[in-house]
Automatic annotation (TrEMBL):
GO molecular function, one term: purine nucleosidase activity
Top-level taxon: Bacteria
Main enzyme class: hydrolase
Alphabetically ordered keywords of this record: Glycosidase, Hydrolase
Limits of the Inosine/uridine-preferring nucleoside hydrolase domain: 5-299
Pfam families for the chain: IU_nuc_hydro
InterPro entries hit by this protein: Inosine/uridine_hydrolase_dom, IUNH, Ribo_hydro-like
Protein known as: Pyrimidine-specific ribonucleoside hydrolase
Length: 315
């Protein structure tokens, strides 16, 4: 039985890989994509999502544009890691989409898909959590229709935008706190600590590029992103943060998790957007969220390569 899946995203290079992994996996039924501000402007995140789905031959999947700004305070800026267009300047190498975004906004599409679903839906928010916070606030009666949220975000040991804050949580800490600190539905959080440890090498990218035309297109989107990680990590590797989260959706348990209570720092000081994880043994684990703490990186890499490498252009 397939897992009905909605991806909430801000493409983004690793978001493109995440969408491709979902499309390549028969275990999931990708029923919708919603977009949010983040790596680039809302206009570009939506356009990029449409282009990636066109590449994958999945233009049947509705795409709805969502939040253009955080819930409370203005967003200080967008990420430079993904290049000016979000795809290392190579968005135009993807097919021109044959259709535009859905007429509904992201929260309305989420509501409609949840209401129509015959069984609970998994949602993978892999950008700022604004759309999900709005959904839970506006439609609390639909919580039972969500199987779980598999969220990419946060850093247990530090951040990538500030010393404490990871990008997705930093973009909208108030929304992140609404979703993570007092969870109304089950949450699996995939933090950057794990996704960075599971970074793929340039040889992995070369193997993917040689596996298929779609693999080569995906790898063609990575130059700016790869250059960022060369600078940050000092090695020829690249973190596919969002694809790691989708891998956990497709193959539950590929990431090992532990339950911890969490909070998100929402002050306007230097700690803003930081993930606060209570790792004390005496903490009430039952009231926390599942945080991915480990994985067999070699197995994860093989799995992603097999799935992405098997993608073929639909005629």
């Amino acid at each position: 039985m397939t897992i009905p899946l909605i991806i909430d995203t801000d493409p983004g290079v690793d978001d493109a890989f995440a969408l491709a992994l979902a499309a390549a996996s028969p275990e999931v039924d990708l029923i919708g994509v919603t977009t949010v501000f983040g790596n680039v402007s809302p206009e570009l995140t939506t356009r990029n999502a449409l282009r990636v789905l066109a590449l994958l031959g999945r233009e049947d999947v509705p795409v709805a544009a969502g939040a253009e700004r955080p819930l409370v305070h203005p967003n200080p800026g967008v990420s430079s890691a993904h290049g000016a267009d979000g795809l290392s300047g190579f968005a135009s190498t993807l097919p021109e989409p044959s259709r535009g975004p859905d007429e509904r906004d992201a929260v309305t599409l989420l509501k409609d898909l949840l209401e129509a679903a015959e069984r609970p839906v998994t949602i993978a928010p892999i950008g700022p959590l604004t759309n999900i916070a709005l959904l839970l606030a506006a439609h609390p009666g639909l919580r039972h229709k969500i199987e779980r949220l598999v969220v990419m975000g946060g850093g247990v040991r530090g951040g990538n935008i500030t010393s404490v804050a990871e990008f997705n949580l930093w973009c909208d800490p108030e929304a992140a706190r609404r979703v993570l600190a007092d969870p109304e539905v089950p949450v699996t959080l995939v933090p950057m600590d794990l996704t960075t440890r599971a970074a793929v090498s340039v040889s992995w990218l070369a193997e993917l590029a040689s596996a298929s035309e779609i693999g080569a297109k995906l790898v063609g989107l990575t130059p700016d992103y790869l250059a960022t990680y060369r600078r940050i990590l000092g090695r020829d590797v690249m973190a596919l943060h969002d694809a790691v989260a989708v891998a956990e959706v497709v193959r539950p348990g590929i990431l090992r998790v532990r339950r911890f209570p969490v909070d998100v720092e929402c002050s306007l000081g230097p700690g803003r957007g930081g993930l606060l994880v209570d790792e004390r043994l005496e903490s009430a684990r039952r009231e926390g969220i599942d945080i991915a703490v480990d994985t067999d990186a070699a197995d994860l890499h093989r799995f992603m390569l097999e799935r992405l490498g098997a993608l073929r252009v639909r005629q």
